[in-house]
Amino acid sequence: MTHAVVLAGGWGERLWPMSTRSCPKQLLRLVAGEPLVRATLRRIAPVAPSKSAIVLTGAAIREAIAAELSGVPQERIIGEPVGRNTAPAIALAAHLLVAEDPDAVMVVLPADHVVSDEAAFCAAVDLAVRAAVAVRGLVTLGIRPTRPETEYGYMRVGRESTVGGVHEVEAFTEKPDAATAESFLAGGRHLWNSGMFVWRADRFLDEVGERLPDVSAALAAVPRRPCDAGFDDAVRRYYEAVPSVSVDYGVMEKAENVLVVPAGFGWDDVGSWCALERVWDDGTGAGSVVRGDAVLVDAERCIVYADGGVAAVVGLSDVIVAHTKDATLVCPKARARDVRRVVEELKRRGVIEP
Amino acid sequence: MTHAVVLAGGWGERLWPMSTRSCPKQLLRLVAGEPLVRATLRRIAPVAPSKSAIVLTGAAIREAIAAELSGVPQERIIGEPVGRNTAPAIALAAHLLVAEDPDAVMVVLPADHVVSDEAAFCAAVDLAVRAAVAVRGLVTLGIRPTRPETEYGYMRVGRESTVGGVHEVEAFTEKPDAATAESFLAGGRHLWNSGMFVWRADRFLDEVGERLPDVSAALAAVPRRPCDAGFDDAVRRYYEAVPSVSVDYGVMEKAENVLVVPAGFGWDDVGSWCALERVWDDGTGAGSVVRGDAVLVDAERCIVYADGGVAAVVGLSDVIVAHTKDATLVCPKARARDVRRVVEELKRRGVIEP
Question: Number of residue pairs across A and B with CB atoms under 8 Å?
């Protein structure tokens, strides 16, 4: 059976102050009035129903996430006491799924992405599931690059596997420099690593045993079912014990039989304020995208967000302006990644919890 | 006797959103933690005590103004049902003062200015009072220009009057163009019209009778004392009847015997966001002035205000950034006067009352 494993931790720091610790990106209704995490489960439902999904999220926002996911049984929404990146979370989900279904196939999905053609998305996942079952591949969904993005991981696509339409991955490159990203874009042989993965749970646990023995060892102490006695305490100890490591670095870059399904759907990870230009429409006629009450006077190509008040922009171009009750952000679009520096400073001051 | 007449109407639109209809500029604690209106009355107290002052303000904010002015008798704080600019307000004050003191001298003071040398301020007012009494002059306090400001009125200074240190005013120029303002600044013969005036109340009423007969006629129906029966209703009818006209245009520019005392004190009308660079200190070391919680990343020479939250500015120079719970303003310093256009648009939308 195919199970959705939804990664709903973190809070989307680079979208501060729209995104906050208490109302993180995956709960924002960025598109079509629906929280991203709910859209994620709805989108995969034709392939993997919500009732057999596993959702991993931060303990502090677990209740808020659960409130949006009525179709997912409460005990299958797991609150992480500390974030340890993706590999330990996916390993925990695999551990639980194998116990209930030795042939379980996992579809690992970040909770905060936007996908535009949902039928094509399901078709791509179906193909990935076939490859995960037929050749026990570790299958990624790859996105054709549309810009020389330096914040993403890239995969070089190799020859077609024995499953038609599914290719081998020859190499991973994480966050290339600008020139390399340009060459990947021009060359046509690279895809973005979307962070969406499909594999058999047992295959993944074998990889974890081989490549992340600390994780594997810690996992042995976790009961096989969420309803088992002591499960919550065991999960807490597990997260405290394991290292923080991404599945890309910890598993994928070292594994054999890594495959990719080139995506036929529109995709955005809404990774920074600039993504909103792609996700939102221009409502101003002057190249600006606006959400909420905004007043633009001689302002062009801006990204303006106002929640609970008015954002007024006079005589500026190509800037991000965000207003919430608690904060204002002003930043040129070209500096969007430096929103991180603001968040770091606010953590240092204790305004945002570290 | 010398009476303070404090003009505390309006709300400082060009300081939006720091200044709002409900918390207007004259109530802001811009300097030394003291509301500007309270500082105005404290500053003039050595010359004209609060208990004999008259304060004119908007009816909607009358209670808030009164709460800050415990030294001024309640009935002497008059709420204007509609704003009619300065001439009708000053005429009403003169009407009341003449009734209680035929020799009353009025010191007319806007409630929203910043003065830095208070002893020099009182000395200048003293001199102006002497001229108002000795030669029945209409005396202004003139400020030596420090920049080619195009938003102010200018006065050309003539020969010294028979009162030493007090000069005749040869001409008024309201809001000159940039080239004219530059020539006034360079020529050394012009002073800014501060909007602070000193004259005998009876002299002023004579001028009103001659130059603003509509105001004079409407005034005749207003009782002579605030405690008289029907006073409030009469004031309401007065404001509804009179035209909106400034004292500069309606009286000063046409009157004889207009004099000026060149000020020996530091003065600022805090007329726009840019004034805060003069009134506040640079606390960042990068040429920016900041009030409230701000995070500046590669931001230089900015004016940043945060009330009830954080204002974060990344990679911008020479901009005004203001955050309140209800609004964000972002505007280059060079466009500060266009804050008006934002306020106009918000009035049009009904967000701000017209």
Answer: 128
